[in-house]
Amino acid sequence: MKAPTWLRGRLGVLLSLGPACAVETLPGVPALLLAPVGLWLLFAAPVLLLRGLTDKVVSTRSGSLLLAAGLAVLLDILVALAVNTVLPPLGVERPLTRLVLASATTLVLLVLGVLAPQSPRPLLRGTPLTGARPVAWAAGAALLLSVAGPIRLNNGLGGAVSTAALVVVTALIVLLLLRHARCSPTVVEAGIYAASATLLLLTSLRGWYITGHDIQREYLYFRLTLGGGFWDISAYTDPYNACLSITLLPVSIFRLTGIEDIYVFKAVLPLLFALTPVLVHRAVRNVASPLVALLSAVFFMAFPTFFTDMPFLGRQAIAFLLLACAMLVLTDSRRPLPLRRAVFTVLLAGVVLSHYSTIYVIVGTLATAFTVDKVWRLASRPGRARTHRAVGKGRTRTFLTWWTVAVPAVLALLWAGPLTHTGGQLESTLRVVASDLFGSGDARAGSSDTRYSLFGGAGVTPEERLAEYREDTIGYTAADRADGKYLPLEALAKYPTPVAEKENLPLTPVGRALDTVGLSVPALNGVLRQAAALLLQALVLVGFVIALRGRSSPFTPVRDQITLTVGALAMMGLFTLVPQLSVDYSVLRAFQQGLLFFAPFIAAGALWAVRRAGRRAVPVLCVLVAGLLLDLTGAVPKVLGGYPAQLALSNSGPAYDIYYPHAEDRRAAMWLNQRAAGDDLVVQTDRYSFSRLQTLLTVRTQDSVHPALLRSQSYVLLGSTPTRKDEVTVFFRGDLVTYRYPRDLLDTTRNLIYSNEGAVVYR
Q1: What is the rounded distance in angstroms from the CA atom of residue 203 to the CA atom of residue 139?
Q2: Is 333 strand, coil or helix?
């Protein structure tokens, strides 16, 4: 008798595990073979074996595959954590080796293949691919340019190819908007993934080494785990080290695939995160029209944090991926509620293991949503006044219950507390927040990012922020300065540190033409950016109001979408109004996280805004979306000039100056390691030179060279930007401030002992 289709597929996966494990354990396997085998064990095989389970949790084929992908990532983390926990007491001192990880992964997959429920649906058979050809051409071109553009820039060439990639991505999204009714859901989701991956790779592939902000520290803790073959939180009780998404997960990927470690961070993690907009689309599609779902994914990608910050935040990228999977489970009401709640909680447990701040914000959002739901139900009791249309399905059971809020909160506290002892940052933040709210009333302003908020955050000028920084440094070094450990203030008075002027791209011919007619291009770029930020927030409120009223709304949200949106907006307001929260957790990142909840309301607001265009509504919407994308991604400023250059498009600009790794910096660090080895003197360097070099510097290092912090005796390493431009950037209370550095001070008080025309060392 012929075996059923599902059994033949499952049997093929199970039979492949033995040879795959054998390849992993053989010495000298070439990378071209090891990479596909490792990716099969880590991602493809788990997805195929988990489909039976995910079919019972969500009702659509693409939703099942996407949820299986998220659970596969979580499974990889848990397998590595299990061997790291179980094997050392049994005498295995280095459990995170290829042999152990491959064997454990294979064993878990065999058990999963035997015990997990089986999917009756074929993987691809019967999947329509209507409208695939034009989308495939545009997607292929975008992905090709997303790799070619960074390579050209990394080789010192121009940014025209990267700019072209942004134009192609915009064209791809416009194509999807125009043809969404004629394209199958699979084709639309493939197009969304290609657009998402392109935007991320244009930034993540910049530089031949680790490039970015948080990613450099993430890479450091990954290297510490990799080097020891063992994850030990007690060795480094730092919150970064407690994020298994950047320690155990990358180690597993590196060990089993042989992909170069920097490209695990620069390519593999971004490509996993690129699934998040697809999950947003699928989650919204469960409760709204195809156009609302597509727009929700587009607005999630169009927000600048998505393609400027997220490529440098591996821990948050994985946390957002799992959170998007949780939202997919929440919105698919065609499956049993208890099972969906259980899987939702498991996914949030994965967020706990992935990123501390994300789970704190989620818990706050869930708690607010749960409270709003209870108040709403009390107000909707029989006998009370009813609205003209039922919104949110008031009489139905809501998804959120007390334990879906309490369990993630308890897990977060346990993980940050007794399990890892890394909750110091949370405690410190809460103390400062309490002081700001109930203290003497002299709390300082928060991050200047709050100026983009409709909630009314106040901006702080760079001069004011730099003055605060100098005041703080002088205050906490006063005692040591009196003992002669720091330079006397009298000696520093001759060397001011004025704020550096903002450096814009030179005006292009188009920009000069606009300038000749009296239109200030720098002012225009600033107005467009501010208007885009306000537009997105206004659309949230408009979409929310019309959805509640029930008139002219493109979709009717379920109750949980409404309450979660209220919770997310409440967290945004809290971050804006409480200064310390905006400092410790970026308001812009909070908005990006909030888009997982309120993106469909932005889409509904946009559709409502163009409703009077009638048949031309979709073309008008395409113009709006295209203009928003081209401006926010940097294509418009690149064409006009008059705006700071962006890292993805230029070899200049503030992000390039502080994040881009240079070979001269690395050579200076390695020379200094030999010179200062065994020396009692500390090495001082600026914050961002230290950030770029922290995986190389083996000597005691202090990440500040501000004159008020210069020690009387120390080495001073100035990286490429301070050396070539006499500029140093500090990060203080959520803001970046660049000031002119007084090199004369070093020339007067120290000796130049090393120079390679890109970095210098003083003694």
Answers
A1: 18
A2: coil
